[in-house]
Design goal:
The protein has 419 residues and is an all-alpha fold. The chain contains 19 helices and no strands.
């Protein structure tokens, strides 16, 4: 019992990693609200917001596969250190532009820079856990990280909403920049026990190996395809249309509180997951994520703010269960030597349609109505989330099955290398 309570925190490397991640998460939680309302204050801001969000996600999509290969090829702790420094510099540039009142179009190159660093950060972040915690503590480590992320989302958005209404969004973004630098200092203390040796094979050959592993496992790619469509809908409706609808109804403070309440659901679910193990992580995760379509429907139907807050809280809980079930499944089932590449293909597929969702959200809303697009988006989201359950393996996969898949994968990769 004592071992389980300490879990991942018994490892010094994870403690430093966790501290840096917590600090960074609290800063980053303020940026979406601060940046969105800073851009919406300028002429044609609602159209520019979509372009800025797309400018950040596009480099991520285009380069995340390279980032995954680099993360399997070199030390993940060093890659994370450098990517946090780079993200801190990019956010500093965005903060300077917003605070100085310069043309918001100057935000675009810094948004691109953020996307580039994110392409390295995410695969390394998801791949490093099996290297800094024991295998049996991976679920516990994910629960701790999700708890911190949820707590940050509770505190960050309301503070950002207040800062927007008083000092302006640039202050919140500047705080976010500072947290990246502090996180880099923490990551400097993280030293993984070993790292892959750089072989003679090219990055592109390694990418082919990752793609081969990914496409041969239907339980992985079927869920990735679902998130391809779900993320496009959610980012277009919730991320772009959400602040626009909020601006003409309950304002930036109300939107910030809604995001904070959603984080309460995230936090409650994260705390519960510290003690609960999903019997069927893939099935339970897809059912849970389907709930995230409800707030979009409520937003589209124009229900009062309290109803939106309740729906957002439920969606937050569902998102946490889904994210933890998915990440833990990949980290337990996929061999460490190829994990970052598989995660990169998952992210590439999951993110590839997001720019279309962000770019076409406003034009579609102008053509068919903002409330109509939000309502239909919520319904479509729920249907797509439940489609992977038609796969028997997705419905019945257990934690024990995941460990068997890991052993089979290691044997397959070992045989491939010997051949």
């Amino acid at each position: 019992m004592v071992r389980y309570k300490i879990g991942a925190l018994s490892r010094p490397a994870f403690r430093w990693f966790y501290l840096g991640r917590v600090i960074s998460l609290f800063g980053s939680a303020m940026t979406p609200v601060a940046l969105a309302f800073a851009v919406l204050q300028v002429r044609s801001g609602q159209h520019l917001l979509g372009f800025i969000l797309a400018a950040e996600i596009l480099p991520n999509i285009l380069l995340v596969l390279i980032g995954g290969s680099l993360s399997d090829r070199y030390r993940r702790d060093r890659l994370l250190l450098f990517s946090n420094l780079g993200s801190g510099l990019s956010q500093s540039g965005i903060a300077a532009i917003v605070l100085s009142g310069a043309s918001p179009y100057w935000l675009l190159p810094f948004a691109v820079s953020n996307g580039v660093w994110s392409a390295v950060t995410s695969p390394a972040m998801r791949g490093i856990l099996p290297e800094i915690v024991e295998c049996e503590d991976i679920a516990h480590a994910n629960a701790l990280l999700n708890t911190a992320r949820s707590a940050a989302r509770i505190v960050g958005p309301p503070i950002a909403g207040i800062l927007v209404a008083t000092l302006g969004g640039g202050v919140g973004i500047a705080i976010d920049a500072a947290t990246f630098f502090i996180a880099a200092i923490c990551l400097h203390q993280v030293h993984i026990p070993s790292h892959p040796a750089v072989g003679d094979s090219s990055i592109f050959r390694e990418l082919r190996e990752g793609w081969s592993y990914f496409r041969q496992r239907r339980w992985i790619w079927s869920i990735t395809v679902a998130f391809t469509l779900m993320n496009a809908v959610q980012m277009g409706v919730w991320q772009v249309l959400g602040p626009i609808l909020a601006k003409v109804t309950f304002g930036s403070s109300g939107w910030g509180v809604t995001l904070g309440v959603k984080a309460v659901g995230l936090l409650i679910a994260s705390l519960a997951m510290l003690k609960i193990q999903l019997r069927h992580p893939l099935r339970d995760g897809m059912i849970a994520i389907a709930i995230s379509g409800i707030p979009m429907f409520v937003l589209g139907q124009g229900y009062a703010l309290p109803y939106l807050m309740i729906a957002a809280a439920l969606a937050g809980a569902g998102s946490t269960i889904s994210a933890m079930g998915w990440d833990t499944s990949l980290q337990q089932a996929v061999p460490k030597s190829i994990l970052s590449r598989v995660c990169a293909f998952d992210e590439f597929g999951s993110y590839m349609m997001i720019p279309l969702g962000e770019l076409f959200a406003v034009p579609l809303a102008d053509a068919f109505g903002y409330h109509t697009v939000a309502t239909v988006g919520g319904i479509v989201f729920v249907v797509i989330a439940l489609l992977p359950l038609t796969d028997r393996l997705v419905r019945r996969m257990t934690p024990g099955d995941l460990w068997k898949l890991n052993q089979e994968g290691n044997a397959e990769l070992s045989g491939s290398l010997q051949g």
